[in-house]
Specification:
By secondary structure, this protein is mostly helical. It has three helices and no strands. The longest helix is centred in the last third of the chain and has 14 residues.
Length: 72
């Protein structure tokens, strides 16, 4: 038989490197790409960016923009 990778239902394999995920992304695909890379739900990453923008005096917004422009 062939050796096909078997993953549990609902669990996506973690990517080897970081890439933007424009298919599942909302704005630039940064949060969805980070979620794929780390294996976390993208909602948690989005909430972290919003909290970082609110409590970090807006520093998360330029970081998000820089990641979106530099990656891929």
């Amino acid at each position: 038989m062939s050796r096909l990778p078997v993953h549990p239902v609902g669990v996506r394999p973690v990517r080897q490197g970081f890439r933007l995920n424009r298919r599942d992304g909302k704005i630039m695909g940064v949060s969805a790409g980070i979620a794929d890379w780390t294996g976390m739900p993208s909602t948690f990453v989005r909430i972290a960016f919003v909290l970082g923008a609110l409590f970090g005096f807006g520093t998360a917004a330029p970081i998000y923009l820089a990641i979106g422009l530099i990656a891929d």
